[in-house]
Write a structure and sequence with these properties.
The protein has 890 residues and is α/β, with parallel strands linked by helices. Helix content is 46%, strand content 14%.
Length: 890
């Protein structure tokens, strides 16, 4: 992985310092021989009804963990007293008590706050079976719930206060004011929440002084004595919130019991623990959390779903609560796991992973029967089991390293095999007759999931047939297994960071632990010869010069990293046989995740609709960060002109673009036509979210003394019509020969100069041998060409902005172009160039212009003035304001 991430993790350091200081204070709070160690928040198999809707539709429990395994892990990790906090039930507690076990009764109740329609979790201890029934009835109203527990002296703890559910948007701060009045105890260290969230809760709870409580009581009209036996007691606790049992007991609470060494002979540990909780004698402990711990837990959970999943039935899905989108997702997930069960090799490895997470190493003889390419993966899984069994101290780092190693090996196997299969397909000579539009028309997805992988040959067009069974041979295991790891990473991040918008507002409200504002700019192109790359390179220079909190990330094997330019190695590179001009580079997603976290980014922008566009959406949905898209390309025009799509397929493409762009928070566009189209009824975007931006010409683009003989090899008297850009059909270059033929009789010494290269170069040279061809011209050499020419011609109807127009104008070179999109916004018709509707008019205007010297001088001066209008200071200022980075600008 090649990067240049120079960012110092100041926010990360601040969080660690806050946590370490807190842990040290809590460790010294009570005498070491006078406390019990307990995990006040952990689950086993009786947490069988999840809060998340998708889990309920699929009828999967939150865990399959046996009680015995949980208690064994708790003891191994240092617990001296025990409880289990399953969702809305204490069945495991009553079962253990029937076996004579000393265990504190507890449950995690899902309660509603009716005046805000917000769901919260309340850890509750020391109740009886009879009281449990009453609590389950009262949990629909947290105020009634808390009033009852206060009356019955049943201690409660507000679990993970900054994690909530069943609410649209971010809760108002009044919600927290009220909860501060009805709770005495707060979970400030939760093993499944990140350190930022935990420390924000800790700081907030510390701010709840008696004076503050009195102030809030008067403000809200709530009498805290109705809900709290000691309204001014604001005790803090910790718990692992472990569902898989892997990390149970590593986060917890020390309960102070005075004279503990004598009292343990007369009083049960569960009663001593209950007494300490009631009186708030608690000191939480726990380590730094980010998504690594939860990723491992979710990977184990996904493995268990794969092992134990049973079809819930489509009727159940359709009749269940939830939107149609929820049910479609559930149906897809259900089919995914059903398909997974058909792959025996994959299922064997899934079982191996699950047992390894539980500390059960496979017998060494199993390695004999594993294919050589998969043996290193088997070894990594075995390493997990050994560490789990023997060394819990560094378990998180070891698990994380092993999971990453497994993922890397699987991805490399998958990439190597996939590229070879694509190369083999590419050698089919019939691709020359392949028509992408016809292919898209035939590729409508069937409604039967199994038919998607039907091994029968499927004919595409042009005489091409693909045996999908053969194509998938060797790909299924690495693809499915690596997908499970990716799913675990995504789900863990999503659960861990779904409160991020609240954390941002909460930190601003308490004025502590504010996350830095930093943006990651993703792109698939940077070193290529195209307009997008030129724009990004120009932006990169401004980012460095202005010290903006923006880093550009690109995937490349050859590009060198730089300040504010991160380069990641591709997992694989390939070209598709029906569009060989573009190389596709697929990055390693787990590497990008790590960079995203290490770089402390809190927003994303993307410039391309390729693999990096998908990465942007992955990060957006995993980390709940604002994500913007910078539209450089008119893909409908590309589909019409380059791919030769018919009306139906253009309509499909429009719907795809609409769905893709709707996934982003804001869109940046480069011309008013694009802005109006996206805001139209056809596309349906909120006009406030479609931001009009622009490019600028770099400082080296200014009028220079330039001689045509030196620049082009033609006499000074010859009128020079310049084309600069990519030589491709969508750029309209095949119109140039006809223009020349219509002008040469009228202006015999006219000379067309073509600067650029591309897929249409050979065809253009064959049809237009009279032109001067410069080939690809380096960016810093273009000002001399612009300054030497008489006019720039742009026959493209494809450009969303056209940097070449702005560069030309800045060098005093007028431009003639079609009245469309980008050029229409830049060129002022009749002042610094011409905007025309058809080729005939373009030829007429060229003839008129090239004959009138005074008109040329007037146009050239106005061209320079127009170029100055596109000022980078103004454009970048608006850009950082629209992306929310304004207060970070220096």
């Amino acid at each position: 992985m090649t990067t240049n991430l120079n960012h110092e993790r100041t926010f990360h350091t601040e969080l660690l310092e806050e946590l370490n200081k807190f842990n040290e204070e809590q460790a010294n709070k009570y005498p070491k021989d006078e406390f019990l160690t307990i995990d006040l928040h952990c689950h086993d198999y009786n947490s069988d009804v999840p809060d998340e809707l998708l889990g309920r539709i699929l009828k999967v429990p939150e865990t399959w963990l046996p009680t015995k395994s949980l208690l064994k892990t708790l003891k191994k990790h240092g617990s001296s007293a025990f409880t289990i906090t399953n969702h809305n039930n204490a069945r495991s507690i009553w079962e253990q008590r029937e076996k004579g076990k000393d265990i504190l009764s507890a449950a995690e109740f899902s309660c509603m706050v009716p005046d805000f329609n917000i769901g919260i979790h309340v850890l509750t201890y020391g109740f009886t079976p009879k009281q449990e029934k009453i609590l389950n009835k009262l949990r629909r109203n947290v105020y009634a719930f808390q009033e009852y527990t206060c009356k019955e002296n049943i201690p409660t703890i507000w679990a993970h206060p900054l994690y909530y559910y069943a609410v649209d948007g971010v809760p108002p701060f009044e919600f927290f004011d009220k909860m501060a009045l009805i709770f005495e105890r707060f979970e400030v260290l939760n093993g499944q929440r990140d350190t930022w969230q935990n420390m924000l809760v800790k700081i907030w709870v510390e701010s709840l002084t008696p004076e503050k409580i009195d102030e809030l009581a008067q403000k809200t009209g709530i009498d805290p004595k109705r809900y709290c036996r000691n309204p001014y007691l604001k005790a803090m606790s910790g718990g692992s919130d472990s569902h898989m049992g892997i990390f149970a007991g590593l986060t917890g609470t020390r309960l102070h019991v005075p004279d503990l060494q004598n009292r343990i002979f007369t009083t049960s540990l569960s009663d001593l623990a209950l007494e300490a909780i009631r009186e708030g004698r608690m000191a939480p402990f726990g380590s730094h959390n980010n998504n690594e711990k939860m990723t491992v837990a979710f990977l184990d959970y996904v493995c268990q779903i794969a092992l134990y999943y049973k079809d819930p039935g489509i009727i159940r899905m359709l009749l269940h609560k939830g939107s149609m989108q929820d049910k479609i997702i559930a149906l897809m997930v259900s089919n995914g796991f059903a398909e997974l069960k058909r792959h025996k090799v994959t299922m064997n490895f899934i079982e191996l992973f699950h047992k390894s997470f539980g500390g059960k190493a496979p017998h060494f003889s199993k390695r004999w029967f594993i294919p050589k390419v998969y043996k290193p993966i088997f070894d990594d899984a075995t390493k997990i089991a050994k560490i789990k069994k023997n060394s819990p101290e560094n378990i998180i780092d070891t698990f994380t390293d092993a999971v990453y190693s497994i993922s890397e090996k699987l991805n490399n196997i998958l990439a190597d095999r996939l590229v070879k299969k694509i190369d083999k397909l590419s050698k089919n000579k019939n691709w020359d007759d392949f028509n992408l539009a016809t292919f898209i028309d035939k590729m409508e997805l069937p409604s039967e999931f199994r038919s998607l992988i039907n091994p029968n040959k499927k004919s595409l067009n042009g005489g091409i047939s693909i045996n999908f069974g053969d194509f998938m041979d060797g790909l299924s295991f690495p693809f499915l297994t690596s997908s499970l790891i990716l799913l675990a990473n995504f789900t863990s991040a999503r659960v861990l960071y779904n409160a991020r918008p609240l954390l941002t507002e909460f930190s601003a409200k308490i004025d502590r632990l504010k996350h830095p504002k930093r943006m990651l700019w993703l792109t698939d192109t940077y070193e290529d010869h195209n307009g997008v790359s030129m724009v990004l390179k120009s932006f990169h220079q401004e980012i460095k010069a202005r010290n903006l909190p923006i880093d550009i990330m690109v995937c490349s094997k050859t590009l060198q990293a730089d300040d504010n330019l991160i380069v990641v190695d591709p997992l694989m590179e390939f070209t598709v046989p029906f569009y060989r001009q573009q190389t596709f580079r697929v990055p390693r997603l787990l590497d990008i995740q790590k960079i995203f976290l290490d770089g402390e980014y809190d927003r994303i922008i993307c410039s391309t609709e390729g693999p990096m566009g998908l990465v942007a959406l992955f990060l957006k949905n995993a980390y709940f960060v604002p994500t913007h898209f910078y539209i450089h390309t008119d893909w409908l025009m590309f589909g019409r002109k380059v791919l030769k799509m018919d009306r139906d397929n253009l309509s499909r493409m429009r719907r795809f673009l609409r769905a893709f762009y709707q996934s982003f928070d804001n869109l940046f566009v480069l011309n008013s036509d694009h802005q109006k189209w996206l805001s139209s009824e056809e596309m349906g975007f909120d006009p406030e979210k479609v931001k009009l931006t622009a490019h600028w010409a770099e400082s080296e683009f200014y009028p220079r003394k330039s001689i045509k003989q030196i620049a082009f090899g033609v006499e000074e008297k010859c009128p020079v019509v310049l084309f600069a850009g990519r030589l491709s059909h969508e750029k309209g270059v095949m119109e140039l020969p006809k223009m020349y033929k219509n002008l040469v009789n009228e202006i015999p010494d006219i000379q067309f100069v073509i600067a650029g290269s591309g897929p249409a170069e050979e065809a253009l040279k064959a049809e237009f041998p009279e032109a001067v061809y410069m080939g690809w011209v380096n960016h810093d050499e273009l000002p001399n060409l612009y300054s030497a020419a008489d006019i720039l011609v742009l026959p493209s109807k494809f450009d969303t902005f056209s940097c070449v127009v702005l560069e030309s104008l800045s060098c005093g070179l007028p431009v003639i172009a079609y009245k469309t999109k980008g050029p229409k916004d830049i060129i002022i018709d009749g002042e610094n160039g011409y905007l025309v509707s058809n080729q005939k008019t373009m030829v007429e205007k060229l003839g008129t212009y090239l004959k009138e010297k005074q008109l040329q001088e007037n146009f050239k001066q106005e061209a320079v003035n127009r170029g100055k209008y596109y000022n980078p200071d103004k454009i970048i200022e608006q850009f950082i304001q629209d992306t929310g980075l304004k207060d970070q600008k220096e």
